[in-house]
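Appendix B, Record 12. Input sequence as logged:
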Amino acid sequence: MDRATILRILDDAGHGAHADAVAALIQPAIRIHASQLAGRPEGWRNGDEAEAGDDGGDDPIAAMDAAMDALPVGASRFGGIPDLPPGAAWPERDGVPMEFIAQLRLADAAPLDPLGRLPAAGSLLFFYNSQWATTDMEPDAACCAVLFHDGPDDQLVRATPPRIEWKSEFSDTPQIAPMIHGLAALTFEATVTVPGGVSPFIQAPLDEFWQDFQSEHADALSGATDSFEANLLLGYVDEQDYVEAHANGTDDQLLLQVDSCDAAEFQFGDCNKLFFLISKAALAARDFGQTRLYSMLG
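Logged structural output:
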């Protein structure tokens, strides 16, 4: 997706008179493409172990082990096992380990960020709480964790996943946390985005037509294809913000958007997305502890 295409779609829809206002909103972003390396090892949730010497085959645990062994420390990924910053513990909430979602090697992505919003080097690691609560449900709770490693890859430490038995209030049986998701390699592509249909970035006179325009042209505006998954670094939330996720209004920045992704076998609710938001001031200060998490915006 590029700026000229967005403005052409706007003009074709009969809203060309608003081209300057829309052009001022267009924000650079980074599209994330995921390719599966290993499926979700369901047995880890039950405390099962891979058989010694198994080279993968039909054993999903051994396949994950083999894929992780082949993955360089520090490599960008969805799911699998994280490489933690030295001395960092696996994030948890109330004694329950969070689910590991993504590790981003910033040297892979930062060159595609012309505004310099991201650190130029290091790593960002994203975790999602295993209790399925999000910031709009529990604004004062630890609903996610984002770790920033400001150093070289060789300082990172391949984690050993904890295994904690816990019982959700919504389940009759105990579970093993954290869930280990499938493993996917990532590539990055520069793109541009516009706000979703309901957004604090949309003011008069755009608010008179923007919601309907976005709804009708959402696929075209995002460059969606049959295999498209809406994984974004930076840019705008691409859905309608009915829950006021933008607590700081236009001073908020989408940090990461992760779709229910086949490559990592992510399944967030009913095929929802995860939205990690941070204020622009916190992002500039590299204060990633201020990141908030949402999984539904309406």
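Helices lie at 3-12, 19-25, 60-70, 106-109, 210-222, 280-284.
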